[in-house]
Amino acid sequence: MGQSLKGKNMKGLVVYNGKYGSTEQYAAWIGESLGLPVRKAGKVSVRELESADYLVIGSSVHMGKLTASGKLKRWWPILAKKKVFFYTTSGTPADERVALERYLAASVPARLPGHILYPAGGRIDYSKYSPILKMLMRNVARSEFMNSHPGEAVPADIGTKVMDAVDRTWIEPLIRDAKAQK
User: Residue 30: how many CB atoms within 10 A of its CB?
Assistant: First the structure.
């Protein structure tokens, strides 16, 4: 799993699952940069997953869990044998590594040496959420802030502002590392 795949004619696949478009945008950029096909998680076949030498899997985070969680668990027998570059999109800042690792841990059966996490800035527009979801999102944001900033006052506007941190630079390390595998 930790072995290099250099020297082999590598065949990869980008698979994504998202809710509001940022995960799909990153998938398109990654596919373009690496010359790989891109598939929405609900439309990818098991055969495609099995035939890829490595996978780039992107998922948005919703309520502290990857939206692709169910699919990742179903695909685990395949993923466990492959080099997998995971990227996540969320409102959680990239420097909140503990929270981001917790999201992935809650969504896959185990972490293997060949599975690498790359956080990417996401997009949140609370105006698109139902009143109940707005309340839940605000509570999750408050809880995450309190866990990662013990003793600090929670900002009054947490979980209410439109946030757009989608930027191609977030995925540059993933692209660099995937290119090194070829």
Answer: 25
d(CA 164, CA 98): 21
Q: Which two tokens stand for residue 164?
A: 């757009």
Q: What are phi and psi of 83, to 5 degrees?
A: -75, 125
Could you report the per-residue pLDDT of 13-44, keeping only the tens digit for each? Answer: 999 999 888 999 999 999 999 999 999 999 99
Q: Quickly state the pLDDT bin for 59 (edges 50, 70, 90).
A: very high
Closest CA to 13 of 73, 79, 60, 62: 79
CA dihedral (128, 132, 138, 143) positive or negative: negative
Distance separating alpha carbons of residues 67 and 59, to the nearest angstrom: 6
**First CA to last CA distance, the chain:** 15
